Each structure stands twice: as C-alpha cells, then as structure tokens.
Amino acid sequence: MKSGMRSVIKSMKTKKLTLARRLSQGFFLLLFLFLFIETESKGADELGPPVRLFLDFDPLILITTLLAAHKAAVAFYLSLILIAITLVFGRVFCGWACPLGTLHNLVGLFKKHADPVLKIQWLKYLVLVFLLVSSLFTLQLVGFLDPISLLIRSLSLSVYPLFAKAISSVFDTAFEYGPAWLSAMSEPVYGALKESVLPFNEPHYRQAVFIGFLFMLVLLANLYERRFWCRHLCPLGALLGLLSRNAMVSRRVSEGCTGCGACEAVCQGAAKPHVPAAYRVEECFACNNCDDVCPEGAVFFGRRRGAAPLPIDLGRRKLVTATLAGVVAVPLLRIGPKELRPEPLLIRPPGALAEREFLRTCVRCGECMKVCITGGLQPAFLEAGAEGLWTPVLVPRIGYCEYRCTLCGQVCPTGAIERLEVDKKVRVKIGLAMVDKGRCLPWAHGIPCIVCEEVCPTPKKAVWFREESFEDRRGRIVKLKVPMVDLKLCTGCGICETLCPVPDWPAIRVTSVGESRSEDNQLLI
Questions:
Q1: Tally of CB atoms within 10 A around 496
Q2: What is the DSSP string of 448-505?
Q3: Lowest mean pLDDT among 54-68, 279-293, 316-330
Q4: Is 379 within the bounds of a domain?
C-alpha cells in the first residue's frame, strides 16, 4: 500500500515537472518573440527592449569573441550565469529555455515514425572545435551556426518580412476587392496589427529566400529525426554538453529499472537512457520525458553519484581534421581581391569598427538590419568576401542612413557597431557621394532637377548648385543649376542616391571612399 502511494506521489511530481518544463519553454519562446518584435524604432531615435538579451546570455559568443577580438561587450558576461546553471543542473538551457529548441520540439510533433539510429552526435563537437580554432586565429564564424544568432537572423531577414507581406496582402485584397462592410471591419484590425506585431515599414531584404530556405531545412530536419540540429550540429549545445558532464544534478536510475526501453523513444537528446552503461550525460536535456514514461518510476533527477561519465570518443583523426580545418579556413576565406583594394560598395553602418576588427566582432545576428528604419542595411553577399557573408552593408538604392538615427549601434550585441550619440554620429563619414554627369538630368539632358540638394540633410548642404550655361540643339544658350558635392561635408548617408529621380541607375551614387573608419580608403589627401 505504501509502495503504491509513493508511486502515485512520484507520478504527480513527475507530471508537475514536465508541465513546468513545457511552461518554461513556452515562456522563453514568447519572451523571445516579444523582444524580437519590440526591437524596432519607437520614434525619436528610441528603441524598445532589444532581443539581443538572449545573445547576452550566450557563452559561445562570449568565448569566440574573446578569442577573435580579444575583447567582448560587458553584457556578454551575463553568459557566466548560464555557465553556472549548466555546471549545477546540466544542459537545461537546451531543454527548458532555448527558443530554437522549442521550435524544434513543435515541428517534431508532426513526426510520425521512430527516429533513425544516427551515430553522428560527435559532429557538433567537431563543429565546436572548428569554430574555436578559427576564432583563435581571428576568424569569427560563430554567427553562422550559433542557434540564437541563427534564429534572430532568420526571423529578421526572412520569416518576419514574409509574415508582414502576407498580412498586408490579405488586407490589401480585402480593402480593394471586398465589400464595403468587410473593408470597414478590416481597417481597425489592420490598424491594431500595425500597432502591435507588424513593422512600421514593410521590410525587403536581399537573400531573404535563401536565408529562409536554410532556416526551413533546419526545422524540417526534425521530421527525419527529432531535435536533429540539437543532437548533431549545434555548437552551443556541444559547449553546454561539455560543461554538463560533471553537473551537480543529473539523471539517476534506481534498482527498479527493468530495462524496458520506454525512455529511449522519448529522449530528446538521444542520450541512450535505456542502457545505463552507455548513458551519455552530455546529451541529456533534462527534459524529464524519461521520468514521465517510466512504468516502474525508476528514473529521477537528483544529486550526481556514481562513476565518471563516459569519455567522448571523437577519434584522433576527426579531432585533427577539425583543428586543421579551423586553421586553413583563415587564409582560405581571405585570399579574395578585396584585400588588394577597398570595395566601393562595402558601405558599413556609422559606428562600424575598422573592417578587420569589424569582421572579428560581428556575429551576423541581423538585429541592425531589422531596426534600420529605411531598410537600407542589407545582408552582404560577397562585398566583404566570403568572410563577410551576411554582415550588414548599406545599399543606398534600397534605403539611406537616416541622419539622426543611431538604432543600429544600440542593438549591436558585440560592439561591432559602436553606440554613438547623435551629435557624434552626424559627423561620421560612411562614404562619399559623386555625380555621374552622363546620367544627371541637368548635366546630361538640360532638364532642371534639384532633388539631391533638397534632401541633403547636412546643416550646410553637402550637395550644392553651380550655375552653368549650355547650348541646346537649337543653338540657344540655357542656364541651369547643376549639382556639385562638397566632399568635406558629405557623410555618405545615401539619401541623394535613394531619392534620385533616375530610377534604374541613379545619377548620384555613394561609395565607401572617405569612410571615417579607414585611414587608407580616402580620397582627400
């Protein structure tokens, strides 16, 4: 009787723990999405609470940034809290808090068949070694695979724009083709969405389809094997797994275990919980599923006891290969022609560090691009070489750098873009504008145009007019104002290029020459 009562009490405790884990996952996912949506301008150069809070608790970014740049933003030392939690409770972040892990769980609910037996869990440890070694040699690649950076970038540059486009298309259709009563009902709903979850300006990003495709592959892999990314590829999971090997609290099994294997089917990390002699403690997410399904109530989580965890057998050849790959990747990604001359289209946001230092620090999270109020900040393709893929670059033909906006520096988690006060930011040059006389309406066609001078935001106009006399085809002398650029006053904000009335290839263009962050890429001597 007492045994049965204890079993009932334990079952109730187990269900409460499982419920607590699910509530925790839901809370952190909703918190992440709330902070993500709030990472947007609220007017007057103000910003809501940024989603970079999750990056601040990421120890992998802290370590690789320290190795690559020999410094890290103070906020990143919050990740020491996560390290301490892992040393006590094990890999609980993966099972209880990681927003990407929760998305993996949700997609995995649609999986109908048992997981295949893949013996490649060692792969994520080799990925971790590769990233650490490359960081040691100043190559910062962690942003490509770190789960928090990957999630923010994918949502910012692909999923969120898709969501905004879909919602606006639905309401546009209702307004244009629907009956009057439907339009009347839709308008306040759309207004409420604009005030809450929709961006102020509909975003458009280059490579959005490609970045979204990669993100969907990561999620859809759960239909082949649940938590595929977490089990085999996640470098943060590998780091936390190593830290959890001697955690103070871990999974334990009593003598009542019959070896039925019920726990194997529900283990999120494929930690081999059904074979005590082969149990991989570093793969356990502390999800409590095994305790939940154990028919004997033989599984519980408590103070760690027993033998040392099994060694992680990566194999000498695999370890050497990963190390050499991290070393070779450094010169391999830096042999492009950009090392010879500055790239004219590589216009970094104001406050960006010198290029070499910038690439050592930027983790490609995409937050700066999300908060850019004109949409001018875009993910780089090869403007900065392969090493600079998905780092932010200003594309003035898409959007300009707002003269008094400093949001990108406010959200940058690593300090790759320094936070500047407005009075300092307006003096920073990110490039220079130059007039193409062959396409300029006054210069080439004798058509009056004053757009570039009108929109120039500098107090003393960097674009100014000079009166020139032209002879038209009838031989008459016509006087016109033609634009000139004061290269000392121009900051390269790109508004003249964005709003130039020549629609395809603007008659005034901004390039990176003259940028404040470089001593070499200068025009004025």
A1: 29
A2: ---HHHHH--SSS-SEEEEEEEEE-TTS-EEEEEEEEE-TTT-----HHHHH-S--SS
A3: 279-293
A4: no
On whether residue 523 sits in a domain, the answer given is yes
Structural domain including 464 reads: 429-525
**Is residue 75 domain-shared with residue 128, that is, in the same domain?**
yes
Residue of 147, 121, 110, 116 whose CA lies nearest to 223 = 110
Query: Who's near 4: CB < 8 A, 6+ residues apart?
Result: none
Its pTM stands at 0.92
89 vs 304: CA distance, rounded Å: 10
**The residue count for the chain:** 525
pLDDT band at 44 (very low <50, low <70, confident <90, very high): low
- Is 125 in the same domain as 20? yes
Place of tokens 């695999």: 318
Q: How far is residue 210 CA from its own chain's centroid?
A: 14
Give the model confidence (pLDDT) of 210-262 as tens digits. Answer: 999 999 999 999 999 999 999 999 999 999 999 999 888 888 787 778 778 78
Q: Residue 14 pLDDT more than 80?
A: no
DSSP assignment letter at 372: -
Taking a C-beta distance cutoff of 8 angstroms, is the pair 93, 86 a contact? yes
**Tokens of residue 246, six digits:** 């001697």
Q: pLDDT tens digits, residue range 83-133?
A: 999 999 999 999 999 999 999 999 999 988 888 878 899 999 999 999 999
Domain end residue (candidates: 303, 336, 364):
303
Q: Give phi and psi for 309, each to the nearest 5.
A: -65, 155
- 347 belongs to a structural domain: no
- CA separation for the pair 59, 142 (Å, rounded): 11
pLDDT in tens, 267-298: 888 888 888 778 888 999 988 888 888 887 77
Specify whether 193 is located in the same domain as 228. Answer: no
8 Å CB contact between 399 and 356: no
Cα 193 to the center of its chain, rounded Å: 24
Phi/psi at 515 (5° precision): -65, 140
Q: How far apart are CA 108 and CA 127, in angstroms?
A: 24
Contact 154, 211 (CB under 8 A): yes
First CA to last CA distance, the chain: 92
The three-class DSSP label of residue 194 is helix
CA atoms within 13 A on the CB side of 524: 11
CA distance 72 to 215: 28
Q: Give yes or no for residue 343 having a pLDDT over 60.
A: yes
Q: Considering 303, 323, 342, which residue would you say is the last residue of a domain?
A: 303
The pLDDT, as a whole number, for residue 398 is: 95
Supply φ then ψ for residue 435, to 5 degrees: -90, 135
CA distance 143 to 131: 10
3-state secondary structure of 406: coil
Q: Which H/E stretch holds residue 303?
A: strand 299-303
Kindly state the greatest CA–CA separation across the chain.
113
